[in-house]
Structure prediction request, 476 residues.
Amino acid sequence: MKPLCFSENFKALRISSGATQKTLAEALQVSPRTLSLWEKGERIPTVEQALAVAERFGLTVEELFYGEEESLEKIPGMASMTELYKIGSGPSSSHTMGPEKACMIFKERYPNADRFAVTLYGSLAKTGEGHGTDRVIVKTLAPIPCAITFDTVTGDLPHPNTMELFAYRGKEEIARTRVYSVGGGAIRFEGESVAESKHIYDLDTFNDISAYCKKEGLRLWEYVYQVEGNDFKDYLMEIWKAMRRSIAAGLEDDGILPGGLNVHKKAKHLYNLQHVDETPETKTNRLISAYAFAVGEQNACGCRIVTAPTCGAAGVLPAVLYFQQKKGGYTDEEICRALATGGLIGNLIKTNASISGAECGCQAEVGSACAMAAAALAELFELSLDKIEYSAEIAIEHHLGLTCDPICGLVQIPCIERNAVAAMRAINAVNLSSFLSDTRKISLDKVIVTMRDTGRDLNRQYRETSEGGLAKIRIH
Ligand code: SF4
Prediction:
């Protein structure tokens, strides 16, 4: 793990911005003494204060605490796509998948424990109940009992998503550790070095990958299989089966989503609803929406879904591919090839921008999912490399600036509906690209970088804080 260096970072940022301790303290609404203690390393800011400081200097909280240079240092290439497509419990990669992973590891490390306890801090404490963080922890540690504490008071946290795990044997505490859920389901155990995922792709821009594929006469999925190895087909097949399972389960389900918003599940209703004079176009949109709702609702219920690229945006890609498989009779193998191409686009976005709503807003989640679905569909249709690129580019370009503002912090409104809209939009993007790809002026790589820059410019309220936009609406 990178060493904490908040005090040095903060001081350097203040000095380079030309601010005095007094002026910056005023701007941040803290006392000059507090600011001085931060700079001496005798105190660290609360979560709210850290977010305000990070926003002021245009950084993420992680960059603020662990160093901008190191955080932004770009390791050439890209990680395996197995880091992108993951099967896990919804509704949030940081609030359920991360804690789930942490508990699995902790349970394995202490098989003699007869009791566990977990304390949640920061955002995990504030929105953990709504996200079902406590439920997934208890389920993962079962059958060993676990007591959960939501500590919304402690403020001096190294990361907004912090949890502390305790293992007991009888009356004795046999272990305790702090874990940070740092996004996308990734976690860090305090004091342990991070096993950085190996970058198995040498190339990390669409331009370079496209040039290589053209030279070698490869399609994008063939390039992915070449890099990932022979077993990757089987991995994708498992991913596809899990996607189909979540659609099937969602179409069977009805009732109310958990969390208190009283949102009715709609996938089954959408699937069965049919007007006598329904046009083929309306039917297409209704079914695609039903599939996207099915996955979104399963995710909101904390069921198993596939991150594509995240939990909140998990419905877009499966909805498009499932609809097309049913309509066009594509084989599972062909769908896996499409998943490989869609995943490649997701990997490029993850590497060169972000797939995190907390970092770059919903454009990074649902926008990325739409680009992945468009590229996957274009691959299924065996369109040219240029048309695949254009499809993905259109899909993400028209999500630029999309904010993340889930009501009550629940991944329900606007998230589920947004998945359906993005799935329909992905199909439109492919249609448009097949007519217009010769006229395009902007590359996919450029739009990806623009999305990153736009995300960093977004006000913090619109980056998964539940403080701005629709999230300000109170629904009971
Ligand atoms: S609004 Fe936020 S939580 Fe909902 S899908 Fe978009 S990024 Fe995820």
Remarks:
- The beta strands are 78-79, 87-89, 115-121, 146-151, 161-169, 172-183, 186-189, 199-201, 304-306.
- The longest helix spans residues 415-436.
- The chain has three domains: 6-72, 93-189, 203-472.
